[in-house]
């Protein structure tokens, strides 16, 4: 299977599995955001499990030692599949995860959580998922927001770099993101203050009409914080997802990022129970 086929198959399955009320899980937008590194690295980071030629689980090696994954809803309590996944995750020779310290993000309602715990995998740091329903129109955030296209790629990238310490995001990576298969259902937004200065950016990813959409990433320029721009660009993101037909807007951030959680809550997002990765120390 070629690289485009691998990515398309993973994205199709992830789109199909998104539904309201589901626990936080790997989203097509997560694969789309990883496409900033290019199609070949994205395909190499994808892990697919099949049963009878049907996809039953999808993973994304988001970092060298972090696999973010989800499982088909109907198979999340399947004992045989949970055992198979745990075996693959625990054996570096199977090519899913490397040796040494690693972590797995899996849905909270998956039997895999219990199986990994039984095999000695511990809990990692807490993350807070947040959701905003999109049944009703989203209020304006008092910030001029535009959809960023190729002409704004450098500007969008510059704001994102200034939003995250150590970020190396570039104009080239914006173009790689936009060229990825999942970007057909995405929009990059850029917010401008009253002086026309770009101060905040966000990317939103739809999984299809009637399904939850994702914000990933969202950032405010370090020189323009504490002015409400995070709330404003988040409201714009929710409005954009509503226009794309999404049923709700989702985001997940480390619980230690108290300011980030507060920003999302100020934009009408409701915090869900914390989630944690499963970790293997060695």
Short description:
It contains nine helices and twelve strands.
Observed structural traits:
Aminopeptidase, GNAT_dom, twelve-stranded mixed β-sheet, 32% helix, single chain, 282 residues, alpha+beta, globular, 9 helices
User: Which sequence of SSEs, written as H and E, runs from N to C?
Assistant: HHHEEEHEHEEHHEEEHEHEE
Looking at CATH, the homologous superfamily of the largest domain is: Gcn5-related N-acetyltransferase (GNAT)
The main β sheet shows up as: 12 strands, mixed
How many β strands by DSSP? Answer: 12
Structure description:
With 282 residues, this protein is α+β, with helices and mostly antiparallel strands. The chain folds into two domains: 124 residues, Aminopeptidase; 143 residues, 3-Layer(aba) Sandwich (Aminopeptidase), CATH 3.40.630.30. 32% of the residues lie in helices and 29% in strands. The protein is built from nine helices and twelve strands. Strands 1, 2, 3, 4, 5, 6, 7, 8, 9, 10, 11 and 12 form a twelve-stranded mixed beta sheet that branches. Helix 4 links the parallel strand 3 and strand 4. Helix 1 packs across helix 3. The longest helix has 15 residues. It is globular. The two termini are 32 Å apart.
Task: Explain the layout of strands and helices.
Layout: H1 3-17, H2 28-34, H3 39-45, E1 46-51, E2 54-63, E3 66-71, H4 79-90, E4 102-105, H5 111-118, E5 122-133, E6 144-147, H6 153-161, H7 171-179, E7 186-192, E8 198-205, E9 212-220, H8 229-243, E10 248-254, H9 258-266, E11 270-271, E12 275-280
Helix pairs in contact: 1-3, 4-5, 6-7
